[in-house]
Amino acid sequence: MSLPKHLQETFSPEEIQFIVENEPIKIFPRITTRQRINHRDHNNNNKGHNDTSRRNWKLITTKDFPLNNMVAMQTTTVTLWIALLLKQQSKCSIIAPDWLTIRSLDQSIQYEKKHEDRFSKLPWNWLVLAQLLFGKAPDDFHDPVHELRNRIQDLREIRQLKVLKGLKYLNESHLQLDNLSVLEINELRPFIIDIMDKLRELHSAAHGESNANEADDEEDFNFS
Amino acid sequence: MGYYDIDDILADSVEIPCKFQHDIPGLGYLENNPGKPISKNAKLDLPIWLARILAIVGGDANPDTMEDEEPLPFVELLTPDMFSPKVINAIKADPASLDLHAINSYFYSLATKWITLFNDKQLAEVVHNLLLERSQIINKYAGSVPVDLFHSSTDIGSGKKTGHSSHGGNSSMVRVSNSTFLLTLDEFEKKIYKKSHESYKDTKRWMFEK
Amino acid sequence: MYGDLANKLILEAKRTQQLNHKQKHAQLPMYHEDLIRNIIKEVTQLKKNTDFLKDQQEQLQNQEGNDNGLDENVLKCQYFVTLLCMERNKRCLLAYQKLRCDMLDSLAWSNSNSSIMELESNDLSHQEQEYLKEYGELITDLKSGEWADIDLSGSLTPPSDVFIDVRVLKDAGEIQTEYGVFNLIKDSQFFVRQSDVERLIQQGYLQKI
Q1: Which parts of the chain are coiled coil (chain B) (predicted)?
Q2: What span, in angstroms and rounded, lies between the C-alpha atoms of C169 and B157?
Q3: What is the pLDDT of residues B85-133, one digit of tens each?
Q4: For labelling, which of A18, A140, C115, C179 has a CA lying 20 to 30 Å from the CA of C35?
């Protein structure tokens, strides 16, 4: 097998980041992509096409629709990796999602503290998205970034503690992880899979089921 | 698990006590007496790969008896120390401080084999609880990743370190580097510890670098 | 006792496994040729024993009376023990070889030609050298076939930037890229296209910073 062992069972955080970077985000462009395309004009002069000189960009994307065109100072939606690339070149500012404000995060923290057996409803990519935006677009937040960072860190720690508590209830058949995000699940995956698989093995051994070693659906991840 | 699994092969080589239920000449080499017979009721330790089968197949106790009589297996498996009431009670009493490695470094694997052989539901429950209880501690140790790890690392190769020390401190994780607990793990637990530790470390490194 | 030699071999395999968990680059210890030859000798001996036992069993079945001291149960038990010993030896041999083959596979994919050269001369058995060579050829075929446009043994980390800063760890001479010629002198730094230098990073000439 050409894939190294550590990548066979779970994703690396870099792979998770890659997946998250393909999600849409709102930006505030500082450039306009609909512009006169000069060399086209020269080429087409004698064909009389120069009146259609305002053209849209058409970039290849993995999904079947082209990249949204940008008009300076008008919000639009693009995939995150393009947003980060444009941001790097100061061609846009990124509009932080609603949940990534001090007010909203404080509410989530309150919820986490109030409900011992539940996770607050953060987006599936909250941790990754927050880290990426803190790192690459810190000047686009209305709230001070270090305070946002602290709250994200608080949320992560509260939730990690809950996960630890929840692990006491692992069993051989199923596991429900409502509202746990992709990175949080990914981090736990090797541990949970191995423990659950061993519990399943013990269970089938005791109940005389053959094929005790045939691993199938060990887990039931529940995203919402 | 699997045919080529080194750990399973090693677990299979663990010896368990057996009692022969037939006189078998010529098998003396099993107890280091080549050429000598093994007599009925002789007790000796045999590796699981041998004992497991000999405990299932057997010859007829008496060729003259009725045909549908259960053949008496060649050996009877005796309960090894690791599953003796004394050890089982110790397991039940305090899974956390148990030196599982000393009991047997392939404890879970052997327990599974034993449970399969005897459909031993009680043992299964004991081991189930043992694993659950110990896995919580293993997980705590696995999750403790010191931050300074990322400063000196060479193979990660990223110079983009931010100065946010708040990322390192993780109050939810126990911070013990060299614990005696880790020395009490059996091979399966060790594997879990290593894998989860890698996973926690990777995630933390990523969080730190961003 | 039969199987003891095979146990030794498997313990050796376990050590190899542990060693490779700790180290990043696969290290294959010497092929245990003597041990393996002795295990095979043991299997051959066991095979002779089973043939002998089978003969006796046939004799027993052809005889009406049961007075020559042969007991069917005894033969059956002896036969089983012999067979199980053979199977055990076989499993150990195969597992040992499988572990080494898996490591050769990942070595062949890892692109580090230098470590392959080192291995070929020393620690591999004749068959393993042959295997590594042919597996390497298969990989080369695969890479140059339908998927020639993709670097199948390239970095498995998803890229985040097209251009990156790199530091030169070892002198590597001049490299030619679309953006001009770089002279890679130790400790110098460059801003280059990641895809141009990926191979050099893998080989340890450059470090991403």
Answers
A1: none
A2: 12
A3: 999 999 999 998 899 999 999 999 999 999 999 999 999 999 999 999 9
A4: C115
